[in-house]
Write a structure and sequence with these properties.
By secondary structure, the protein is mainly α. It is built from 11 helices and no strands.
């Protein structure tokens, strides 16, 4: 308890303590910066030594391949509209993979978040278990999960969807649980006092408070999952990434198709980013349509 009868500290002492705190903060910040730079330099040197050639010898050729793709695309610019139409169904498949994975991951992440939040958990002793499950889902990269599932299920969009959904559940579960920490427990306690079940307490007492933030994070994750589903196509998981791998690995003569796929991906990501950003602003800040 604070002693209200104690004499106030002199202003000079307060200034000296504040200056000392600032100096200490700058020293810690400088040490962390030095450590970060040392780790970056060490990591770069290790990677450079393991490469077939040195970065210093090959950095000037970094734009050779993109220039080759663009030059061939310009030469065959008349074929671009046809390629856009040809690869549009693969783009739709990629978007469907991302949408289904985001929906499944959001539902699983919501359940994990509610089960791992103090004051809301159905089984409080199992909170550490559900948190470790989210850590595992979040720690394993989507491409690793997809490779395992492709070995079990075969190629196609299903392994990609499941892999992205698992990673999404771990990532969104962590974000949702942090949102839950700021929710008021009074409605939950009130519903519990009248005999509501756990599901009713969560649906009526928690979800209305955290729903806008949940949707905002889910929309942001949808953008990330579109990129992830395109990348997973390189390992045979379907979608436009699979078509991109074929067009790039075929060699000379198909770089115009690769350029068309890149253009489709760029337009899609920009459009989704604008739409989801507008919806997130409306949900979190009440912006007008």
């Amino acid at each position: 308890m604070t002693d209200l009868t104690a004499a106030p500290r002199p202003v000079a002492q307060i200034r000296e303590d504040y200056a000392e705190m600032i100096r200490r903060k700058r020293i810690y910040g400088g040490l962390l910066l030095i450590l970060f730079i040392a780790l970056m330099v060490a990591g770069f040197q290790t990677a450079d030594n393991r490469n077939a050639g040195s970065f210093a010898d090959g950095w000037h050729r970094v734009f050779d391949y993109p220039a080759e793709v663009l030059s061939e695309a310009v030469e065959k610019a008349a074929n671009l509209p046809g390629h856009l139409v040809t690869f549009f169904p693969a783009l739709i498949e990629t978007i469907n993979i991302a949408a289904a994975a985001t929906l499944a991951g959001t539902l699983a992440g919501t359940l994990l978040a509610l089960l791992s939040t103090r004051g809301m958990a159905l089984w409080p002793p199992l909170i550490p278990l559900f948190r470790r499950i989210m850590d595992i889902c979040r720690a394993v990269p989507e491409i690793v999960i997809a490779l395992v599932l492709i070995f079990v299920l075969g190629g196609g969009p299903v392994p990609a969807m499941v892999a992205i959904a698992i990673h999404t559940a771990g990532a969104l579960g962590k974000l949702f649980s942090e949102v839950n920490e700021n929710a008021s427990l009074k409605p939950v306690e009130g519903l519990h006092s009248v005999g509501a079940t756990w599901a009713q307490r969560m649906y009526l007492g928690v979800i209305p408070q955290v729903g806008p933030n949940y949707v905002s994070y889910a929309l942001l994750r949808f953008e990330i999952n579109i990129r992830a589903s395109a990348i997973l196509g390189f390992v045979g998981a379907g979608g436009i990434g699979y078509e991109l791998r074929n067009s790039m690995s075929w060699g000379q003569g198909r770089y115009d198709e690769a350029a068309a796929i890149f253009l489709l991906l760029f337009i899609t990501i920009v459009v989704v980013d604008q739409i989801s950003g507008h919806l997130r602003d409306r949900l979190t800040h009440g912006a007008a349509l």
